[in-house]
Amino acid sequence: MIFTSTRGHAAPVPLRALLTRGTAPDGGLYMPQNFPAPDLQCALALGALPFADLVAALIALFDDRPEAGSATRAAIARA
Length: 79
Prior knowledge:
2 domains; three-stranded antiparallel β-sheet; alpha+beta
């Protein structure tokens, strides 16, 4: 997923890049270009997950790389 600055004067970046940058170079905040569509069944399923899996699932909604889910869960387990 690609994120853009709220001020519109910085280049769009993927999630991984924005996590290491914080705010955009133009002083704006990064926002996703598109938000995931709400899904009641998905939301209900998230409520039953252990915390680390819940965090990984929420992040995966904004990181569409195929390896993102397992990599995120591994990073959370190490934290």
